[in-house]
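Retro notes - structure team

What went well: the batch runner handled both jobs without manual restarts.
What didn't: labels got mixed up in the shared folder, which is why I'm recording both outputs here explicitly, each with its sequence directly above its tokens.

Job 1
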Amino acid sequence: MVQNLLIRNILRTYLPITILVSLISTVATFINTFLAAIWLSGEDVVPISVPSYLTWFISITGSMVATGSSILFSRYLAHGRSDNAINVYNVAMIVGIILGLIFFAICLIYSYLIQQGDTPLSSIISADYVSAMGISAIPLIVLQIAVMFLRMDNDRPLAVTCFAVFIIIDIASVWITIQERLGSFGVGISVAIGSVVALMLLPVHMRIKGRNMVIRPPTDLLKGMKSMYRIGFRSILQRVCMTLRYYFLNLFISTSGIVVVGCLTAQSVVLHLLVPIFIGCAIMSTVLSGTFYPLGDRRSLNDSIRELSKASLVITVLMMVLVLILSEDITDLLVSGEEKRQAALTCLRWFAFSIPTTALCMILLYMYHSTKHKMMSNVLIVYRSVILMFVIVLALSPVIDENAIWISFLLSDLLMLATVVVIACIRNHRFPTSIDDLMMLRGEKYDVPPIYSGSIHNDKEELKSMLIDIEKALSDHSLSDEVISSALDGIKDVVGKTIDHAYKDPMAHQIDVLIRMDDGLNIVIKDDSSGEIDISEDIKQAKSLDLNFYYINIDSKQYSDRSVTAQNS
């Protein structure tokens, strides 16, 4: 099947909400600082905007916890491990509260230190703002975690509603603060007000039967934290590398005699607005890869990365065109001085061309981490974000001056992609010609191909043809008649009932069947139907990403002697 309808439906529903949810990581800083800039005088805005990096740091910390834990949550749901998923949710909430308390203490101490000495008015304003952000830390982090889990627990409408409520209340609170002259404390506390009001919607979800966001004492808290941070580590590493990248570029600019100090301002602002798109693509890459990789489902993995790459290219090419069109307006708004403005314009236009390549790099980096290439993923993150940037700028700046800085964003992406191709050539002993070659899948479930992997639409005639193909595939592997009959009956029962009763619309849908022979015969059936069907107690059912997963396991003791003989020959 050329088009994977299951993957396309997942991306159509989950990619937009993932990007939207990722906006929480940056929206508080931008809303408060930008709206304050519109309504306050410059003397008041500066002391508010200076400590705004605290809001950013609180947000990215919450984003890391939310990303790592929700990905683990979705994996457990896909494999029918609901108790583990519930435990992950509670561990994440506890970690979020602990981190919020730590930031609260840091902000109070920092606020106290700012006010020492002569205590000018600007310091008092900054101190008040920092204190408010300390109070906002717990609800802001918990909100990020909750919204991520709502998305993974199949409640996208409420996730979007929480986000919208947060934005509306935050803006309204800032507006009231400015109108009533409540000072910088009011501007900062608006984040807490918006977060708390949005969190008040959570009981609506938790009262729904069958949901997995259930509050209960967690087990193995330290183990859960370790797993969560191991998955979220890429977010930390990625952001650290990006910080090093911009520190190096600013240092190089300020010490090289190039009169373009501040020219990265426009590019940096645009980057922060695009980060939710990059993070959204990366999260979807991790979620899809982490869901299908343990199943040994090579085809779904390939289709996931292919379809995600296509979708991300459509979005990022549009963003590239938009940035190119608005580049002059953006630089005029953010950069003063004709010489700096021209340099910033050149920088922004070169950066625009790197927007699609950055998305592709993020998809690959996060996919590798989820498919047991963790070390390669981490090395490539440092290689792309730091090493290549250093080498390109230092090597080309004597030749093309500051243009080396502007083209380094695009060149570092292209060179990383080229490096991936070289690695694939070495590992596969051939030039990569497909997504499968670039994925370099290894392991017990990928060294041996499945017995059967196929798809049909929700059509009974197609089911008949599939059963014939499956029977032939099982017979070719010398399985006993009992095993073959048991497998066919289970597949016919699940798929037949799904076609007859589970779909609530007349549209064409896709049903996948994957059969592997490990310790026994393992069958995985997945579809995107919304109705419930009655199945045998021997068949395990799970749901994640709006997909139904059915697991049929036939004990290896049911194999005939000729099966053992065939495996040993």
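Job 2
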Amino acid sequence: MVIKIRLKSIAHGIWRVVSNKKNLIVFALFLLLLFGVQLGLFFITEQTVSYNEKELSGTDEEVLTAIVSEDVTIELVHGEKRLQQRIAPMGININEDVAAEQLQDRKPYSRLIPFVGLFIDGSSLELQPQYTIDEEKLHAASEEIAAALSYDAEDAGLAEQEGGLVATPEKEGSMLSSDVVFRTLAAYFSNPQDKQVVFAGKSVSAELTAEELKSIIETYQSLLLSSLIVQVDDREYVLGPDEILGLVEITSDSLQFSGEAATELVGQWTKDIVETSGTTKVTYVDDKETDRIIGSDGRGFNTDEMLQDIAAWIDNPTDGEVLSYESFVVPARVVEDRIYTATSAGLKSLLENWISENAGTYSVYVEELDSGGRKAAVHDDISRVMASTYKVFLSAVAYHLAENGEISLNKKVYGNSTVEDCIRLGIINSDNPCMIALGKYIGWAKVDSTIAAMGFKDTVLNNYNSDGSFNGDKTSTARDMAQILKQLSNGTLLSSANTKKLLGYMAQDIYDDGIPAGSGGSNVEHKVGFLYALKHDMGIVYAPESTYVLVVLSDNSSWSRIADVSQEIFTFLN
């Protein structure tokens, strides 16, 4: 009853205050002042909030700045691999707008109840971060993360331990794709719960399992319990486990025969078995044997066969197996000492031996033009395709006909080129069109009849049918080529003036890799011919001690070989 009366009195008193207009205005101003102070405290008072498992203190602006600039690091986990990763480089950032709204809404009661913020701590409210995602950056980062967190399978391996060989177990690998990383991270940052992201990769099996190594281990154990006997003639070599294991190499996944170690071991045996053969020296003078010193025979055995057999035995060892071999006679090495007399017979022997020792097919003719008079030929009567050497014969025919008044050397036969021009170009540069035009101007039948009249019975340049089509090849022999060189040299074929011009052109032949290259720097008047595998050279060599004609016709040879035989002849005659 008393409480009821007091409440009534209090209410009556308040009514008296508020019913007075002046008092009402004062009371209203007091309330406005009270809420203004409260509102100021709300915005300027330092607050402490929990954000991302951190306590952040300060004004709203300071807390917001700390949240936005926070360098968040998360742990990425894939199987046994872990990676600490900052989120900003991945294109993931704090959503600043959402964070600001959360700060504004963190203490709604402080707006309604005056000064409650002074007494009630708002730090118990935990703000939940939200993120924005730059998909392009996240895709790029996902590729790097997938590569860093993937791990290969590990094969089983072999390891030696006391008393034998054991297999180390294989380990499964796991490959992580960038798509999986991207999707997992995107899902995680839509509702992050903790700072660890776990990825599920694709399992990768090892290529070699411990089970597959069992047969190798069994072979190794067999080698420990086996011996091998190697017999060569009446000698016997016993290999025990220690020697046998010295012939194998243990890798991480195989037991391999060591060819190097086995070769070294067999090499020790060869000291007892192998006997080096001697040398038989045979002396020839112009292909006739004049002396023979007999060297002793040696002995050897097939080490390759032995090594192959030992390797096969190691793959499938049988205790006490015997491998038997017999040595064999190694004949004495034969060395030929060839001496050539300074005669035609010696020169011919030189040519025959050179041809027998060099690849290719050859016709060779050599003859001194001075007082020596030595000459030799091999296959000089065999008709061969001439290639461009025919141009010497055609030039001689043209000069001969001009001397007889049948043609003019100034006649234009190929464009503005005269007969003389074609001879010069054909000999020096081996020009083809101009020389073909010259042959047509004279007439190929006329060319051949003139050549025959000059005495070159084995040379044919007319290889055309009546309609102008080809019919075979231009052919000659080394003998005919040597004869035309001899007649040019002694001046019996053409006039002095024309001989001088033709030989002068031959001295300017631009192809010097054949006879000139092997003539010791001597002056050479020559003409080459080459067509497909054919390489020919014919010329006059003016050497210090001898002037001679040399013709080398070859098939499947080379300029260096022609230069070599030229060098042999130059040395012989000088």
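One thing worth noting from job 2: Confidence is low (pLDDT under 50) at residues 1-5, 108-124.
We'll revisit the folder naming next retro.
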